[in-house]
Amino acid sequence: MDYIAVVECVSSGILYIDEIIAHGCKPLIVNTNIKTNDLDNYRRMLREILKDKAEFLDEGEDFDTLVEKLRRFKIKAVFPGSEYGVRLADRLTSALGLKGNDEKTTYLRCTKAGMHEALGKAGIRRIETEEVKSESDIGEFWRKNNLDKCVLKYSESAATVGLKICSSVDEAVEHFRLMRSTANYKGDIDSDILIQEYISGTEYIVNTLSCDGRHMLTDVWTYAKIQAGDGTLAYDYAKLVKDLEPGHIDMIRYAYKVLDAVDMKWGLCHIEIKIDRKGPVLIETNARPMGLAMTASYLDEVLGYHLTDLAIETYFRPSAFNKYIHRVYNPPKYALMKLLIVPEKIKGSFGPTFLFSNLIRSTREILFFGKEEVSTYPRTIDLETCPLVVKMVNQDYGALMKDYEMLRQIESNYFHLLYSSNNNVPAVEPRTDIESIIKTLYPSWRFCVVTDEGVSIAQNGKMTELDNWSIFDGAIYAKCGKDTTEERCRTIYRTILTVRSGGTFIIVPESFSAMEDGSVIVEFIMNIAGVHVIAPSYDSNGLIYGLKK
User: Fold this and answer.
1) Does an H or E element contain 38, and which?
2) d(Cα 210, Cα 36) in Å, to the nearest integer?
3) Does 447 lie in the same domain as 394?
């Protein structure tokens, strides 16, 4: 049996597993000596998920012993599954005599200090960067570069862990002191700390594939981050660049130069670039797949391929690279990944939240970084403190952005609607005269009436039991018994779907008054379901009306 090794198969690295099996090989997952709680939990979960689909091996304390263990397998290739695995993957590739990136230049691809040093030597634009060894280095760098802002970050890190934008020397010194006693993403204390000039502009992800030193673009995304008052950065979204815009050609060509400068020869690479008035400049890069736990189904719908399929095919059949390198970059759909920003520490559950179900039409997947059951979530200050991601796709750009804006509005103004520490809705005494509403306003219409007793049909002054679901002229929702927030919201949504275009939806106040911000929740559901909310009249008695679009 032939094996393909994946070092630290984390996040999107799991895409390699099925692809390896499809190529007639067995996956061998190699775990490094890096120890963090999150990484250990992920490794345990991976063993449970994959079971007999893959073999597992730990790095151990002696590299030569690890190599000897690997020689017992018929290893055909070694791929890094995440940033955690890049260094060891390069060492193993070299030790086993396989095609791969040179371990002597690994630091150029793994450390921010190394990559910016490489850009300087290659004569490519780079961010002014220096290692901070003492507090005085900060003031000297600030004055030498005439700064009004700077960025402090770990030289080797990910997900903006530890990063902060500082507006004064004093603020930067204070954060430097904090970083010296805080672990980076690998759990290391006392790792190298860098100071950089702050670059404004739009940030992009440029993902690439290399084959024997030649490079091709696989996909481009644009980042949006929100800076908090304390200088920390929370990710808002990553949006696929479907259609290239002015400046993007220079950015992609710049990315290819970066790959050459950091000695990238084989495999997938994730590059982060900003474009300002001077053009593109590298933020950071790493020789591994893009994160955010991508799935093959999501990427196939968005791009028409899922990256690891191209990586394995071109590794074993370099001639196939010629087919892909000249293809036209034209993703079939628009895509956006909304990363939830928690404004302050909360305790609750995101699991039952109706707004993150498929009610939002662009939603394809929901990725929970934390536990779906009741848990405690800190304020979001970087990617590691983001609790979940909503992955969205739509052929209509306007519809996609409308769905995103709705999520952003909820997140910004009604965050408590997105989680629940108590999902129960108490019973409320019914008091609305439903029959009177129908007789007065819509005597001849065929209405669906939903109450705690069941579903009935109202027409021409008569109420009859529902014999089968169909499309109605209108619907009245009047459930007010004991319920859960999730089920109440879902039944409201399902009721709206029974109304024809141009028909009327009515909900009585007893159905939402016992939920916190109940009327706001109903308005969001109506918007999601394609209902135009009608402004209330003076004598509407708490009823909410809407017209189905």
Assistant:
1) helix 37-50
2) 30
3) no
| Percent share of the chain, pLDDT over 70 | 94
Residue 111 lies in a domain: no
CATH number at residue 230: 3.30.470.20
Q: What is the mean pLDDT of the chain?
A: 91
Q: Residue 352: what pLDDT?
A: 47
Is residue 85 within 8 A of residue 106, CB to CB? The reply is no
DSSP character for 416? Answer: G
Please tell me the distance from the alpha carbon of residue 182 to that of residue 34, in angstroms, as a whole number. 16
Domain count across the chain = 4
Q: What is the pLDDT of residues 507-539, one digit of tens each?
A: 999 999 998 889 998 999 999 899 999 999 999
Give dist(CA 353, CA 271) in Å, integer: 34
| CA–CA distance, 342 with 333 (Å, rounded to integer) | 29
pLDDT at residue 466, rounded to an integer: 64
The range of the structural domain enclosing residue 28 comes to 2-98
* Integer angstrom CA distances of residue 8 from 11, 30, 89, 363: 9, 6, 9, 29
Domain of 37, CATH number, reads 3.40.50.720
Would you say residue 109 lies in a domain? no
